[in-house]
Amino acid sequence: MTPSDHPQLLADFVVVRRLGDAGNGTFYLAVPPQRLGLADDRVVVKVFSGPCSDDAYRRGVRELRAFAAVRSPYLAKLYDAVLQGQFMYAMEYFPAGSLADPAGGVLERDAALAALADAARGVHDLHEAGIAHGNVTPSSVMIFEGGGRICDLGLSRVLSTDEPLTSFVQPGSVQYVDPSLLAGGTPSRATDVWSLGACLHFVLTGTGVYGAIPEAQPMLAIRAALSTPPALAPSLNRDEAALIAGCLNLSGPVPGTALEVAGRIDALRR
């Protein structure tokens, strides 16, 4: 990657390379400034798309502070937030990658399940603090030391309260968004549990619950998701299908908490 492919600086973070796009923004690997006093020599900086007003910045910082205040070993560490035309924040770097893009290219089944179970525990800890994550996708589940962490709090709605729905739902993420959110609802425990079920379907089958939808065109993808009930892959075994169907509110009891989802994911490990 050449220097022209990414900015040299993001505020006072020195950019090493561009990591990719996800969740209404772009991620960069960067060297943190000395003012933060971090032991880590690398962090990830997420830069949100589009300009950000002072009011939106304050809302975003408030949400991030609430996230950072939750005591949980299953949440990614947050380090800083900056407004420089666009809203950006710095968080912990995970060299092993995410469920959507593991560094080794392929992640073994049990390792993926362990990462998702830990992410569900982190989501539960957020819920207990009164926070809905609102953006649980394979890209937000990071792989870490035999387990996982949840990151990338869904700030798009907070930063762009007057924007259309398509600004919140990015290409590839429709598969993991509860239809109630697509219809204009508010993130909640139940919508996060739905997203965890959709992520589990991806981990076990490599496919989304809506099958082939035009993910590169958010509005068409939303319409397809709202008009097509989720469907489970036939390759799932009974226990796998039962848990996912419950999370998606298709059949059987719906898990009451993300912690329950975590425990049942652990039970699926061989």
Oligomer: single chain
Uncertain segments: 158-166
Number of domains: 2
CATH topology label of the largest domain? Transferase(Phosphotransferase), domain 1
Q: What is the string of SSEs from the N terminus onward?
A: EEEEHEEHEEHHHHHH
Tell me, briefly, the overall form. globular
Rounded mean pLDDT score: 87
Strand order of the largest sheet: 1-2-3-4-6-5
Helix content: 25-40%
Structural class comes to alpha+beta
Please give the count of helices.
8
What percent strand? 15-25%
- How many strands? 8
InterPro entries: Kinase-like_dom_sf, NEK_Ser/Thr_kinase, Prot_kinase_dom
Keywords: ATP-binding, Kinase, Nucleotide-binding, Serine/threonine-protein kinase, Transferase
Pfam families: Pkinase (PF00069)
EC number: 2.7.11.1
Question: Can you offer a commentary on this structure?
Answer:
Residues 13-270 form the Protein kinase domain. With 270 residues, this protein is of the alpha+beta class. It has two domains: 10-91, 2-Layer Sandwich (Phosphorylase Kinase, domain 1), CATH 3.30.200.20; 97-154 and 170-268, Transferase(Phosphotransferase) domain 1 (Transferase(Phosphotransferase), domain 1), CATH 1.10.510. It is 34% helix and 17% strand. It has eight helices and eight strands; from the N terminus they run ββββαββαββαααααα. The strands form two sheets. The protein has a six-stranded antiparallel β-sheet, with helices on one face. Strands 7-8 form a two-stranded antiparallel ribbon. A hairpin with a 3-residue loop joins strand 2 and strand 3. Helix 2 packs antiparallel against helix 5. The N and C termini lie far apart (40 Å).
